[in-house]
Amino acid sequence: QVHLIESGGGLVQAGGSLRLSCAASGRSFGTYSVGWFRQAPGKEREFVASVNSRTGDTYYADSVKGRFAISSDNARATIYLQMNSLKPEDTAVYYCAATTYSVSYSRHDYVYWGQGTQVTVAS
User: Fold this and answer.
1) Which band of pLDDT confidence, cut at 50, 70 and 90, is reported for residue 27?
2) What is the DSSP string of the chain?
3) CA-CA 20 to 30 A from 22: which of 5, 62, 71, 117?
4) What's the mean per-residue pLDDT of the chain?
5) Spatial distance between the Cα atoms of 104 and 108, rounded to a whole number of angstroms
6) In whole angstroms, how far apart are CA 19 and each of 27, 53, 55, 70, 82?
7) From the CA atom positions of the chain, what is the Rg in Å?
8) What is the pLDDT at residue 77?
9) Does pLDDT of 28 surpass 90?
């Protein structure tokens, strides 16, 4: 069993930045690929970014390309999501999740989930 705990959410002005963290415990972090998803009120949970913890390859949703950056620190069993140039439409609960797939954009392929952290971008 893998336990994931997100932190770093909060309130920020449009154009500002936040850095989210996801700490993993339990099974070795290096055996999973990890992703970030978000869910806004009235919308489905959507893919944001992912990183293959073995290769370091990263993937992004079109809506965040050029603004967000995902990274992993296997020694600390932690992944990060650096969010820059934030927009009001980025407001959502952000979730960290792990999968046994090398690459996946689907929430159905992720079996371990954190509790979520709220990100609110004010205009």
Assistant:
1) low
2) -EEEEEE--EEEETT--EEEEEEEEES-GGGSEEEEEEE-TTS--EEEEEEETTT--EEE-TTTTTTEEEEEEGGGTEEEEEE-S--GGG-EEEEEEEESSSS---GGGEEEE---EEEEEE-
3) 62
4) 92
5) 9
6) 24, 19, 22, 10, 4
7) 13
8) 86
9) no
Structure tokens at 29: 């972090």
Tokens of 47: 């893919």
* Each residue's pLDDT tens digit, 16-26: 999 999 998 87
Place of tokens 């979730």: 95
Q: What is the mean pLDDT of residues 101-109?
A: 88
Decide if 84 contacts 118 (C-beta within 8 A). Answer: no
Task: Pull the structure tokens for residue 62.
Answer: 């079109």
Residues in the chain: 123
